[in-house]
Design a protein that fits this description.
The chain has 138 residues and is mainly α. 78% of the residues lie in helices and 0% in strands. It contains eight helices and no strands. The protein has helices spanning 6-27, 32-50, 52-59, 65-80, 83-98, 102-110, 113-119, 122-132. Helix 1 runs antiparallel to helix 2 (32-50), helix 2 packs across helix 3 (52-59) and helix 6 (102-110) runs antiparallel to helix 8.
Length: 138
């Protein structure tokens, strides 16, 4: 079993709350305050989980600068008060940043009993296959 340090446990909590606030902010018609809190908690939690140095190395790799610009630009735009535009930019940047992890996540979810069955349904499986294939590595 993997043991987590205290800062990683705090980071998991912050990231979880960040995702919750982002989801809740979108449910409540793009509430600026909830989205801003969610963004700050998510980025802070990620920094706690993998460390500040590795976070900077991840975001500021040369081939990920476009994705980082969209993601952090979206965070900034949400913070200044334009939540719809900011979230669109953030989601695009998020998919560009983490697209190398999607095949791993899809492969894992396909092995989960109920979710694997749902992902193999006719309409969903073609979409999941497209998301699950990756031509470039992170």
């Amino acid at each position: 079993m993997i043991s987590l340090s205290d800062s990683q446990k705090i980071g998991m909590g912050l990231t979880g709350f960040g995702v919750f606030f982002l989801f809740f902010g979108m449910i409540l018609f793009f509430d600026k305050a909830l989205l801003a809190i969610g963004n700050i908690l998510f980025v802070a939690g990620l920094s706690f989980v993998i460390g500040l140095e590795r976070t900077f190395k991840f975001f500021f790799q040369k081939h990920k600068m476009k994705a980082t610009g969209f993601f952090l630009g979206g965070v900034f735009i949400v913070l200044i008060g334009w939540p719809m535009i900011g979230m669109v930019l953030e989601i695009y940047g998020f998919f560009l940043l983490f697209r190398g992890f999607f095949p791993v996540a899809v492969g894992f979810i396909r092995r989960v009993p109920v979710l694997g069955y749902l992902m193999n349904l006719p309409g969903i499986s073609s979409f999941v296959d497209k998301v699950g294939e990756s031509n470039n590595m992170v």
